[in-house]
Structure formats: structure tokens, C-alpha cells
């Protein structure tokens, strides 16, 4: 029988409310910059509020929403004790899914679960989220930090987020716009982004490589390469959508499942997209992972983005303008394939054809050729 005189406090159970309050104070300056004129109220309310007057004036506004995390990339941040970039991965994974349908992301919330609230660490994580939101033109209107002692180790944490955007119904991008003759335009990734880290970490561990190992092909340490933040494409793609002379038909965010599967999701069922590997060279991290783990080509392409962060479909006569527009924002883009009618498609024997993905009865994609040596 327990001692009836013993007092058990929340702090004794492992939750430090004062540490949470300190974390909020440390992150305030960053969060204040991640705003928009439509935001009402300030940090600390029970709900984030956003003035929707502009939406109400739209002819047929369609709200778009997305939620995601960053997977096991957090393990790299924790191992390196560097937490100010993981927020870019979170914002990229969440916000850039919204742009796929042509919507402008408006606001975002975040959630952090940790074994122990270390104010400086939480502030670094949220600071990264806020800076990425500022870069994306998105307001960070709220968030939550939860301390889970006994469930997570003191230095462990996970992050998740959700965002909402809006688009006129008449401007929604997607399979309904894609036509035979469209060009498949690849847009470069900044590296691994935030998918496939379970494979990458397994390969690295199997090879016995440490995160502080300098890798000549990377020009930096392995840990620095693996922690490279996801590029946030939101404003880049919105500019592409709004550029006179460009009639963008569809976008695909190359995340879990790889290039072929994510491209197939945004194609109509009656078309075929042929993508040629010879049109680009993946950054060295991809070939290094494949070589170290002897990862089969099909498996690595289903897991990693292979240097392609986004794909756009548009008419052939608009490709040059699109490439110049993206170059003006520091992004490399190139023609990687074309769309044809399925019934007349040139399908190469013995090479996998991916049809639809993630429950979508979409189009067919075949990736052919080899990357330049």
C-alpha cells in the first residue's frame, strides 16, 4: 500500500509546464513573422483565426487541406542535435501538397510530441517551421507541444502539421486538364527531402558509416547531406501558375512512392506518360545510397525522389517560358518526358508500367533509359 501522505505532482510525473511556457516565449519572435494580413488574434489562443472575407468574394472557392509529418528524418536531427531545419521539411511536405491542385496555401498549424520539453530545442523546431511558413507565404496560426514522458525518450520527438488553402473551382489543376501532347517537366529537388529515410538509415547503418564522415561526393559530411532541408516550392509554383502565357495542366509532388507512382496519380486513366532517365543526373546522395546498400533500381525509385522534387504537365510550346520562370526563382527544370494517348503509346517491353497509385485510378507511367554516367 502506498504512503497516503505522498504527494505526486505533474512535474514528478515528468511534465514540466514551466518549460513549455519558456519554449513559447523563445519562439514568439519567429512565429510573429510567419503571418498574413488575414490573421486575427495572436499567439496563445485556443484556436487560430483567419479572416475569410476574400474567400467569400470568390466565385466558387474550393478549400484544400493537407496533413503530414517528416518521418524518420527526425532521427538524423536528433543524432546531430540540430533542430532548426526540420521545420522546412514539415512545411514542404504539408504545404506543397496543397499547391498540387493549384490552391494557394493560407495557414498552417503544427504539433510536436516529445519525451521532455527542452525549451531551446522546441523553439528551434518551431523557429524552422515559422521561417519556412514565411518563405511559403503561409501563416502559422497555432500549434501544440505535448510532453510524453515514459512514451518517448527525453531527447526524442516527432512533428506533424496541417494546412489549408483555397482555389477557384475553375482553376483547379489535375487529371481533367492533362492532354496527349503535354510535356512532362521535371523540377529539381534539394536532395532526399523527407521520404525514404528508413531505407537510407538502414543502408548507412549496414555500411557502418557515421554521420560525421566526410563524403567527397557530397562536399560535406554525411549528416549534413542527410539533414539538407526540403525545398519549399509553394511560391515558386504559384508564380508559375499565375504567369501569363502558361496554362499549367497538372502538378505532382514527388514524395513517398517515388516519381512514377506520384505522376500516375495526376494523370487521367486514358493517357500514358513516358519519362526518360537520360534527361537528368540525380545528385550523388542517391547513387551513394544505392551503391552502399546494393538497392535494386526499382526499389530505390519507389522510395526516393531521385533528384526530382516536382513534376509539371503543360503544353509543349510553353515549356521554355516555364523553365525560364523557374530559373528566375533559382530552380532547375527540364523536359523529362511526354504524354500520349494510351491506345497509341510506345510502351517498351520488359519495363514496368505503373498505373495509378494510392487508390487513384490514374494514368500509366513508364520510366525508361539510364541516367548519364
Automatic annotation (TrEMBL):
GO biological process: 'de novo' IMP biosynthetic process; adenine biosynthetic process
Pathway where it operates: Purine metabolism; IMP biosynthesis via de novo pathway; 5-amino-1-(5-phospho-D-ribosyl)imidazole from N(2)-formyl-N(1)-(5-phospho-D-ribosyl)glycinamide: step 2/2
Subcellular localization, as worded in the UniProt entry: Cytoplasm
Domain of life according to the entry: Bacteria
Domain PurM-like C-terminal residues, every copy: 179-347
Stated family: Belongs to the AIR synthase family.
HAMAP family: AIRS (MF_00741)
Entry protein name: Phosphoribosylformylglycinamidine cyclo-ligase
